Amino acid sequence: MKLEISKTKNLYFALSSAFIGIGIIAMIISQITLGAPLRLGLDFTGGTLVQLRFTPKAPDPTKVRQVVDKLGITNIQQIGDQSIALRTKTLTQAERTKLIADVKAGLGQAEIERVESVGPTLGQELLTNGLLAIFISLIGILGYLAIRFQFDYAICAAIALIHDVLVTLGVFSILGLVFKIETDTLFVVAMLTIIGFSVQDTVVVYDRIRENLKFISRKRPFSEIVDDSVNQTMARSINTTVTALLVLLPLCLFGGENIRYFALALILGFISGTYSSIFNASALLIWWRERQAATPTKAPKTAKGT
User: Fold this and answer.
1) What is the pLDDT of residues 134-151, one digit of tens each?
2) What is the per-residue pLDDT across 229-282, written as a single tens digit (0 to 9) for each?
3) Which of 67, 123, 158, 272 has its CA 20 to 30 A from that of 20?
4) Quick one: 136 and 248 in the same domain?
5) In sequence order, what E strands does the chain have?
6) Which long-range CB contacts under 8 A does 206-209 form with residues at least 24 apart?
7) Exposed, middle or buried: residue 58 (CB in 10 Å: 0-12, 13-18, 19+)?
8) Cβ 67 vs Cβ 107: under 8 Å
9) Nearest to residue 17, comparing CAs of 206, 202, 159?
């Protein structure tokens, strides 16, 4: 079965717009209710981490959740078979001592492995640096594509990249509102990884389009050449994504809480990146070239009397 991107591009644009629109609505609601587009974790807002070691093994996660929920703690990470890390707001020494005593009373005796605090200033700095890293990576990729291909290729690829970022942000905004899932510095790492993966997939498609433009008769419409290029590279893009998902799915299902959501972000971004590389990036390029071809060029002015 041959995909005809040129004939169904409006459908792909509509699907992407719907997903992005839902995500933006969720981010607006999150901004109003939580003060940020996503539910930010303690890495960004500041807080205290308490890690406890139980003997011979940590209690059942369900029991841990029941106890710590009563104490107002929502961020829990099980580390190995014996340790549990709890993240909460910034605590004084007295509040920290009371928290540890309450946890021990509800879960049994445990040793304190570590206690760390992140101030709100450092958390804000981490958030700012993370957003700056994402912005710089997008600008760098735009410049690279403009040099390697043409400027319209770079613009279309950048729009596809922004699509992948917005889809992932939208899903995590919904998860933060519904399931109180927080984002931390690992989420920034996931976003940078998604950007790199997505642009690499797009470059493969654009490379094939450029090669086909060189070696296939230029009498063929540009849209047909793009359709052929997408079909020639689609199997490679899907196989690459499936291979990555085979690694990420076990991490998402069986990893610790932080690793689980890091893997989930990558899964969402990789699937979105494959979709946008196959459909959006190529469809946008077709739309742009058709728009340019339909724009009438101004006739040169002639001197009077000629």
Assistant:
1) 788 778 877 887 787 788
2) 888 998 888 999 999 999 999 989 887 666 889 999 999 999 999 999 888 988
3) 123
4) yes
5) 47-54, 75-79, 83-88, 110-118
6) 206/145, 206/149, 206/153, 206/157, 206/281, 206/285, 208/232, 208/233, 209/282, 209/285
7) buried
8) yes
9) 159
End-to-end CA distance of the chain: 57
Q: How many CB atoms lie within 10 A of CB 81?
A: 9
Q: What is the pLDDT of residues 64-108, one digit of tens each?
A: 777 777 777 767 777 777 788 777 777 777 877 887 788 878 877
Q: How far apart are alpha carbons 234 and 216 in whole angstroms?
A: 19
Q: Are residues 25 and 80 in the same domain?
A: no
Residue 78 tokens, joined: 């099980």
Considering the domain boundaries, does residue 41 fall inside one?
Answer: no
Regarding whether 255 and 181 lie in a shared domain, the answer is yes
